[in-house]
Amino acid sequence: MIEDKNQLINKLFKSSAVNSIILERKVFESLSERKWQVSHSPYYIDFDSKKHQEIDVVASKYWNVKDDFSCRVNLLIECKSLKDYHIIVDNKRNSKRYELKDFWIGNDNIFHYQKIRKLLKKAKISENDINTIIKKLDLYCSPDGIVYRNANYIFNAFKIDAYNVFRETNIANTKDIDNSVIWKCQQSLSSCISSIEEMFWADIDYSIKRIKNDSLFNSSNLVEEIVCDLIDDAKHKEIVHPVIVVESNLWELNSDGLGKLNYFRLCFQQLRDTELWVDIVHVDHLDEYFENLKIYDDFIKNIK
Known about the structure:
Elements: H1 2-13, H2 16-33, E1 37-40, E2 43-45, E3 52-54, E4 57-66, E5 69-80, E6 86-92, E7 101-103, H3 114-122, H4 127-141, E8 162-169, H5 181-215, H6 222-234, E9 236-246, E10 249-254, E11 257-261, E12 263-268, E13 276-282, H7 286-290, H8 294-301
Parallel strand pairs: 5-9, 6-10, 8-12, 9-13
Antiparallel strand pairs: 1-4, 2-3, 4-5, 6-8, 7-9, 10-11, 12-13
């Protein structure tokens, strides 16, 4: 019986399930050591299907930069074994800035504050009051009518080599895009980002409803209360940085043949619209990759 039990334990320990947890734990521990707030296997609601989905690791760091600005960077990380596969990249990009996806209430200015207007209408705020609220919010977000208040607070992803083309192969077979683990991870990360955006606006929706309901029981100035609350929201920005950690060998196709990579940025080009990108990191080089995160701390320290 003891021998059977030991055999079972050995089989389980070598299983893909245990290996997956060990891989995720390495990511968790590496980020915890760097003082990031880390969650292992949190769940979110998929924006399209409305079903619960899991993401392997989420790490965040919060900075209260000034009295009028705070931000949180969220690392969204998928971990995949892919032990028998190789990831080969090509078409290296020239140096370019990659802005991190951010959620800030002032971004709605691009769409003439359509999202805010929709939430205010949903709360049955009058059209005149909506126009007043939007005017005062816009005055805060863009004081001179041209430059955003937080124009100096735009986060760019730290620089690493970036490529446009990838293949996922075990030499005998090459996966097409629908079956590619990297592609599926990117889809999951995009879904999680959409969920974060939905939660961001849901919080604003809740605040507007709360203020509207409170106004029914007291004589507070509804417009001013909503404006103050929205301006408080405008003092914070949520930022996301997507990452995939793998055990696969990473290769660059170059003029000399194939060169080994420790990590890189993979860009998913689209014919139209904005492009998507994700950082892909070999598990043996996690610490080296995560050292780049210090750039975000340095950026915050240098904000005037």
